[in-house]
C-alpha cells in the first residue's frame, strides 16, 4: 500500500534553516552490508506528489549500496510551508534542495560506511526534475550526477497547461477537499502527476491515502508550481554547459512532455537515456524494479572508470 515503508526505513527531518522541518524517508542497509557506501541519492517528488512516490525504489536502491532519501518539498504533504505563493519561487525551492544536500553530506555518525553521504546523486521526478535542474545550475559541484525522471526541457504541453490553470483557478476559490472531489470525478485524473503513488507499486486501492496526502499540501505551493510548470523556460543549454553527468529516464509514453521531446533533450545534454517499457509518466510506480535497475546501472557506471 501507499504508505507502507520497507523494513529498515526511517522517517525524520533533514535540512537546516528554512528547510529544517523537511520530512524525509530514508532507507539503507545496515552496517556490514556489501557495498554499503556506494553513495546517497536525494529523491524529489513531482507536482501533487510526495516522498511516498518513491517507496518502491527504496529497498532495491539500498540493496545496491545506496542510501536513498526521499523528501517532501516545502509545502508538500508533511513538510510545512508558508501561505504566500512567493515562498515557492523556483529558486527558493532549489535552495531548499541545496540545503538538504548539504545536510546529507554531513554524513551523521549512524550512516553506514565511511562518508556515505559524500557522493550525492540528485533525482527529480517531473516538477521535481525542474527544481533539481535549478539546484544543479546554482551549484553543480554539489552533486555527483543529476537524473531527470519524466521531466522535460521547458513548459508542459498546452493541454496540460490548460488543466494546470483550471486547477490553480479552482484552488484560489475552493477548499482542497472540494477540489479533490472534482479531480476524482474527472477522467483521466488531472493534472500531470496525480497518478503517482502506491496503488500501482503495492496493489490495492490507495484512494484514501492519496486524498490524505492531497489535503495536507499547501494550496499556495500547488498554485505557484502549477504556474512554473506552464512557464518554465528551456534551460538545456545551461545544463549542458555545467558538464554534470545526467540521466534522462522516462516511460514509453508521456502526455506531460512527449517522449520524442525527452529524447531530443537527452541528445542536447549528451545524457544517458533510458526508456522504461510499460511505464507512463511515473516509471517509479509503474515499473519500479526496472526503474531501480536502470538508476543503479547509471550510478554504478559513473564510479567505474572502465565504463
From TrEMBL:
The keyword Hydrolase applies. GO terms for molecular function: hydrolase activity. The keyword Hydrolase applies. Residues 41-294 form the AB hydrolase-1 domain. Keywords: Hydrolase. It holds the Pfam family Abhydrolase_6. Residues 8-25 have a biased composition (Low complexity). Residues 1-35, 185-206 are annotated as: Disordered. InterPro entries: AB_hydrolase_1, AB_hydrolase_fold, Carboxylesterase_BioH. This is Alpha/beta fold hydrolase. It comes from Streptomyces anatolicus.
Amino acid at each position: 500500500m501507499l504508505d507502507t515503508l520497507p523494513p529498515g526505513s526511517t522517517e525524520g527531518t533533514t535540512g537546516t534553516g528554512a528547510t529544517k522541518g523537511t520530512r524525509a524517508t530514508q532507507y539503507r542497509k545496515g552496517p556490514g552490508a556489501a557495498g554499503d557506501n556506494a553513495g546517497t541519492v536525494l529523491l524529489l517528488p513531482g507536482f501533487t506528489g510526495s516522498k511516498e512516490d518513491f517507496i518502491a525504489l527504496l529497498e532495491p536502491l539500498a540493496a545496491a549500496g545506496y542510501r536513498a532519501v526521499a523528501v517532501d518539498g516545502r509545502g508538500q504533504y508533511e513538510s510545512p510551508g508558508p501561505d504566500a505563493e512567493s515562498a515557492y519561487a523556483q529558486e527558493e525551492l532549489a535552495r531548499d534542495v541545496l540545503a538538504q544536500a548539504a545536510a546529507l553530506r554531513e554524513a551523521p555518525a549512524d550512516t553506514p560506511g565511511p562518508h556515505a553521504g559524500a557522493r550525492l546523486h540528485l533525482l527529480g521526478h517531473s516538477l521535481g526534475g525542474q527544481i533539481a535542474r535549478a539546484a544543479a545550475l546554482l551549484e553543480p559541484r554539489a552533486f555527483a550526477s543529476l537524473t531527470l525522471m519524466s521531466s522535460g526541457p521547458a513548459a508542459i504541453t498546452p493541454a496540460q497547461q490548460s488543466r494546470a490553470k483550471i486547477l490553480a483557478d479552482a484552488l484560489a476559490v475552493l477548499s482542497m477537499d472540494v477540489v479533490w472531489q472534482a479531480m476524482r470525478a474527472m477522467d483521466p485524473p488531472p493534472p500531470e502527476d496525480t497518478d503517482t503513488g502506491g496503488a500501482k507499486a503495492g496493489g490495492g486501492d490507495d484512494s484514501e491515502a492519496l486524498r490524505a496526502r492531497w489535503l495536507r499540501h499547501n494550496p499556495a505551493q500547488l498554485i505557484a508550481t502549477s504556474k512554473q510548470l506552464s512557464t518554465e523556460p528551456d534551460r538545456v543549454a545551461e545544463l549542458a554547459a555545467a558538464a554534470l553527468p545526467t540521466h534522462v529516464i522516462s516511460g514509453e509514453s508521456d502526455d506531460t512532455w512527449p517522449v520524442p521531446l525527452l529524447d531530443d533533450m537527452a541528445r542536447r545534454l549528451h545524457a544517458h537515456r533510458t526508456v522504461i517499457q510499460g511505464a507512463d509518466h511515473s516509471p517509479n510506480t509503474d515499473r519500479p524494479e526496472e526503474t531501480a535497475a536502470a538508476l543503479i546501472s547509471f550510478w554504478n557506471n559513473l564510479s567505474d572508470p572502465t565504463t
